[in-house]
Write a sequence for this structure.
């Protein structure tokens, strides 16, 4: 399942105008736990924990569990320029902008650009026109700069 990339009307990349945009997934507004994040050779199961020295030919695979239904989804990122996994407290700018704007396109999955990391690592964001994909849980957040829309597939169905 691909996410819908409805873009925000905020400023273009590099304008300095912080922007959120939609990234629809089966868990866009559901509380999730990030189970693991791993690099894997393209087209294989994610078994490698360490960052490969050469990202070419590797995908970044994240597994998330919806807390309410226990359904597990695999999110596969290709064409990765950068990634970070950090405590949700490390993204204070996101939460302040969410509050100031009265919300964002999704509680758990969304896109963002022209934020602090963009300004710190401009070259990393060039392939994606400044956008990064975010999975935000109550405990940690995964942010990935990718020129391609991540693929989301069900690994286990929701519990009845």
């Amino acid at each position: 399942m691909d996410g819908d990339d409805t873009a925000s009307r905020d400023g273009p990349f590099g304008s300095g105008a912080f922007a959120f945009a939609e990234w629809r997934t089966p868990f866009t507004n559901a509380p999730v736990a990030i189970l693991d994040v791993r690099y894997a050779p393209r087209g294989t199961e994610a078994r490698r924990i360490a960052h490969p020295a050469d990202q070419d030919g590797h995908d970044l695979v994240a597994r998330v569990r919806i807390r309410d239904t226990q359904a597990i989804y695999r999110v596969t990122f290709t064409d990765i320029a950068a990634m970070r996994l950090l405590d949700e407290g490390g993204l204070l700018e996101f939460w302040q902008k969410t509050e100031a704007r009265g919300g964002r396109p999704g509680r758990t999955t969304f896109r963002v650009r022209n934020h602090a990391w963009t300004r710190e690592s401009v070259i990393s964001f060039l392939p994606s026109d400044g956008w990064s994909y975010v999975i935000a849980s109550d405990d940690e957040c995964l942010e990935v700069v990718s020129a391609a829309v991540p693929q989301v597939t069900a690994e286990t169905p929701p519990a009845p």
